[in-house]
Structures
1.
Amino acid sequence: MPVLNMVQAINLALKEEMQRDDSVVILGEDVGKDGGVFRVTEGLYDRFGAQRIIDTPLAESGIVGAAIGMAVYGLKPVAEIQFMGFIYPALDQILSHASRVRARSRGRFSCPLVIRTPYGIGIKAPEHHEESTEALFCHTPGVKVVVPSTPYNAKGLLMSSIRDPDPVIFLEAARLYRMIKEEVPEGEYTIPLGQARIAREGSSVTIIAWGSMLHRTLQAAEGYDAEVIDMMTLSPFDEETIYNSVKKTGRVVIVHEAPKTCGFGAELSASIAEDAMLYLRAPVMRVTAYDVVMPTAKLEDYYTPDVSRIRKAVEEILKY
Amino acid sequence: MPEKIIESFQIRRLDILNEKGEANGPLMPALSDDLIKKMYELFILLRTFDRYALNLHAEGRIGTYASVLGQEASQVGSALAIEKSDWIFPSFRESGVYLSMGYPPRMLLQYWSGDERGSRVPDDLNIFPVCVPVGTQIPHAVGAAAAAKYKGDKIAVVSYFGDGGTSKGDFHEGLNMAGVMKLPVVFICQNNHWAISVPLKQQTASKTIAQKAYAYGFDGIQVDGNDVFAVYKATKEAVDKARQGGGPTFIECVTYRMSDHTTADDAKRYRSQEEVDAWKSKDPLLRLKLFMEKKGLWSEQYGKEIEEKTKEIIEKEVREKESTKDPDPKDMFTYTYTNLTLRQMKQMKEVES
Ligand SMILES: Cc1ncc(C[n+]2csc(CCOP(=O)(O)OP(=O)(O)O)c2C)c(N)n1
């Protein structure tokens, strides 16, 4: 079985899905000849040609808007937005249209598209290259939000996303692209959307994370009897796995690299308070980035949760 | 009823200084020897800055950097036609504009090393910080021009962007508004033929970028972007016109990005060496030097003096940048709002501890 990093695993998923289904097309900036700025689409242009791997003009609203048109017409577009910080021009199309094609047409039309975009910290790039604004999309009914944390999951989740009949925002942690390698089988396997996974079992505290923060969380969990949940899909999210874990541990820490206020941790925390309140032995704690504009390289490391901040929260919550 | 032609347009193209260093007499703007030398000296400053920045990146001392090699004439030529009281909204590849306007080189280096204090524009300059999202600065320039018009200030506003930037919705929205409101704004597109790996042909199907202006109801002109005199002349006319209430102008500078897109890019993946080589003979610096030689404004000794002086300046700037202490983590809280929120105050305490 090949040992692949995240870039290679995603590339493999794209290649296999394009081979299997000729309605799958890729569009975006620099995805063709250049193979994408992170090389995620490398080799696909040579294999599938300019008709299926489309280098578009520099126009995010156009890319997503056109992908919507392609999708309603019967293709399965996979649009790449070069960095999450450049998805904002496309928000209009995602929020105003992709999310509500099905609802607006009372089921007559659907919009099976995937928008892939690298997100998050760790690459020390200029402004707008390290954003983590997943909450914007989780707040939008009608789109699904998927965040893999390992190469194996990335491949299985991307295959499911491409096959999903609704729009999916597929977030790839830039920091993880080449950080971890693992065995990734060739050929078909899917991981259902909407399911979380227990990344580590434990019984005294539940720590919830996703994407690149999962790995810091696992590191922080060492030495504690902590259960770590990898969300994998943020919207719709897996309430069952979370509540079952809360029943067991009674304590919850949520970790994310987006700012605290109105981050997705707020949704999780409120849901746990609403539905699993009686199992809680302590308040739900959030370890997050700060409520400031995402700083550039020099201060990036101070901005995001690190292992010691996560441990501090765990220590504190264990005191209850 | 027969079909009629109700509108047609012509695109002007301005070339003044050719590759042999010969200037077209009647078109040549009246420039003092001092200004011509200043152009040359800024070219050298820019090349030196660029070389040092690329080296600093290679040594891991600054982060991603976007080179301006090859685009010096477009940047220096236009910037020298802009007054200090004018406002400028650049993109991320305008080091030449910043430096020509007097922005301290060490601050640009600081910016590229991820230290946001490098973006604190000196009080005597009306130039906006680097804009990373492509094309989004265009409507800002339009708004500033509307404000200047409203206040009755006789200034021009200049916005810079690349050929890729012209594909964005912001470009359309900005130019359309400028045309409708007849605003004192000058749009300068540096058509360097590539938007990362996407060539001009895949960016637009129109023959020139300049002609896009006609759809918005104002003049567009194409100039040789490697010809500093042509760029200067077109910009000077456009800013003067703007100041006199004549409305917007669009200038397409046809030039070429000689380096990779940024230090994170490898241009060999998508463009041929022959293409790059063909542009080497169009070097804006070489042309200006040949012209000055003919006029007796350039000598080996002058060339050497300028190079040495410039190298000293840049080395000093690099030293100063390198001896600047890293920003305090509290710095990230300071400017989100005028005053810290309660929650931020708590978060700031956490960072301190
Ligand atoms: C809205 C947006 N989308 C994508 C990017 C990533 N990106 C940075 S520069 C660039 C190409 C820009 O080309 P052009 O406008 O021609 O300017 P040039 O770099 O050639 O000077 C791209 C796609 C970005 N910065 N902003």
Note: The two ends of chain A are 46 Å apart (CA to CA).
2.
Amino acid sequence: MKATTKIKTRSLMACLALTASVQAAEADQNRIHGGELVLAPTQTNAHVRNFNPYNFSVGAFYAQDFIYEPLWIYNIAHPGQDFPRLAVSFETADDLRSVTYHLRPGVKWSDGQAFSADDVVFTFELAKSHPAFPVGLDIQSDSNPNGLIVSMEKVDDLTFVVRLSKPSGLAHEHIGVMYPLPRHIWKDVQDPTTFANSEPVATGPFTEVRSFSMSQFKVCRNEKYWDAGKPYIDCLKFPQYSGNDQTMLAARAGKIDWLGDGMSDPERTYVNGDKHNKYWFPAGANANLHLNTHKAPFNSLPFRQAFSMALNRRFILDVATFGLTTETQFPIGTGELYKDWYDAQALQPYRYLMEYNPKRAKALLDENGFVDRDGDGWRDNPDGSPIEFKLAVPSGWSDWVNTMMTVSENLRDIGVNAHLSTQDESTWFAGTTQGDFDVYIMWTKPSATPHGTYSLMFATDGLAEGRRLEQNMHGMVIPEINQALDRFAQTQDRAEQKKWLTQVHKQVAEKLPVITLFANPDWYQYNDSRFQGWVTQDNPYVRPMLHLGVPERGVHVLNLSLRKEAAAQVARQ
Amino acid sequence: MRFILRRLGFYCAAFAVALTLNFFIPRLMPGDPAATLFVSLRGRMSQQSLDAMRAAYGFDGSLWDQFVAYVFRLMHGDLGVSTVNFPQPASEMLLYAAGWTLFLVGVATLLSFAVGIVFGMLAAWRRGSFFDTLFTPVNVMLNAFTPAVVALLLLYGFALQLEWFPLGRAYDIDLEPGWNMAFIASVLYHSVLPLASLVIIAIGGWHLSMRNTMINLLNEDYITLARAKGLSGRRILFRYAARNAMLPQITSLALTFGFVLGGALITEVVFNYPGLGKFTLAAIEKRDYAFIQGQLLFLTVTVLLANLIADVLNLLLDPRLRDRSELA
């Protein structure tokens, strides 16, 4: 019999994920409770008491994942093995126009009140009535008519339905990452944007703020946490560090348990200091070059192809970026992070664009009229106007500065007059929203599926003369890509999604809106003298980073516990 | 009196000009706080929401509107909201950092003044002696060192290698700040290296200027007379020579104090000391207008105050100035 209302469910997957996480963790009885985990927070001159999970200047780093939990944690390293948090399952309706969530029973806020669908709906309404409150939900409104989410409605205490403005099989990726707020507290808040939330009431594993001073504070365990017996750790301790040097001195001496600092030579500057200092820099999001395709010579495809072939990526990987980056195989703007999503066979014909071939690059430029016309030794545009441009990068970002230096040398080798232009960070950031630039180096935004990354890279609403968004600085509109992305979003079948994604990949390789460079390392360092259960290269159960925007850190921290020796030491003191 | 009033009028005008410059200088820098602040949000928020946030942070409206709002807020003693620590008032962080800076740079200034004066005095008194030929060139040489070198050497030698002193911070982070012995001891212990790095450099300046003034004075007739009268060397040194030589030093001490709130950027950065220099650097990097304005305002006020005090001191100490102003 064919079900008339076929509902696609993720709860089965969720169950699988649960067993997987149990296997990843050691048997619970062997775990020791206690200990204070020292984390290196975002650098600041003084701690400010703010635990608003949607205050991205201060509060979010501490409040997200540790104090407040999301509905769902996507396991980006292992697609499909997600971690259900405040929700236990969700179903996308057959017509893809609504998503129904089932919440975890028995969850309590840290003040003892029950958590329910009312809180979720309240958080949605709060975001809707305060556009300046960055909950991150794409809500449809008069000022945002193309918004995805129309409403959230409570069905019963543990169920709510999200109605969508258009069919989408991926809406859950936007909804699942929200951090519900307690209605009984926040309903009296005048303006959530400026609310400091200094005594957080939350459902996460750590909710009690203790001994707060401008140079250190602790957030300690939530006795009412729903996952009984967890967390194993008593408190998270956040010492203040204002600069890299001071952080490095402390980390090197083994005084920080978990951090994520950029290091060019980790063996010498970090591991050498303490035998328990370990690191793993997995391949993260890609770094690509954005050429301003609204002007010559970047509007010419052969020029972009020659540009791509002129680059000595091997040298960039091994020398310019200190051997810490990872090769990206195809000129599609994304790499290792989404390796499960490639169709290598379909992309093989474009592989030559990633290979260092200055000869072929020169020939291609010659063929297309990019030759030296005014005799100054540099190639000019086919119309005779000279080519001279800047490669913009923030000063002090040494790996990227080296990369851009190599790029400029490689281009000069084939007769293209390109200069390195280092800028103050703020100036560089400000430039990302303006159309007035030549070449920028830019990261990509990782998301649960490559769909999120590409939809930002090819968002059309930010494009206008003199206006760009940081992810679509190239300024190209490729309707085939947007169509393929729409089709991707309208299905939940992975094979089908992959088929549409391959269309996207081929279009990117064909038209080269961005010049693909390499996968940036994700920075992750830890000291395992006191705690165990760390994500390692051999046991990579989640992405291991401490950064804001990696919700998996909430899973990671729950898996850490005191080592026997360290516990004995604590007991002696 | 006329002299003082005229100076006061001048200071008020200078203050008004400084207020205006304070507003415009940060805004002349390329980039704006919104760009740095919202970079993490882009892609997560619609343009409409970003615009709403911009308004919440006070970046909407024309520059003139913002200036009027700034002056209006200032008249109510409100320095605005910090964007680095949104929505914390900029004044809270300013006062916190100002306290530590006042302590660190203030004590360092007084210490180097006291030590430098004594050095200069003794060097001049026994000109050409072993003491003079050793310390005068050494102090002058140290004076030419950049703070970065001295601070890093001290950090490397005494904190990293010998581990006699902590690597940084103003106090042990496991202590709760408060007026108790443990905390005060910790503050003093943590201040040794930062203080030393400032004092070592600053001594030379005081030493040299005290020595020069003293040498001139020692050739004056009244000193010869004092010697002829058979007064003891000690009495001539302290009561006759040093006392007079101090006068110009005290005026320049008052002026130096005006700049205390500028902080000691490099020392603060090296030792992670929570002073104004470091906070201001971060504010400039992140284009935290409210904080930069507040800091510039602080600095303007203290420099003007110090100048005023120096003026008054001069007036009190130098009868010639007083007579002239009364004549006019």
Note: The two ends of chain B are 11 Å apart (CA to CA).
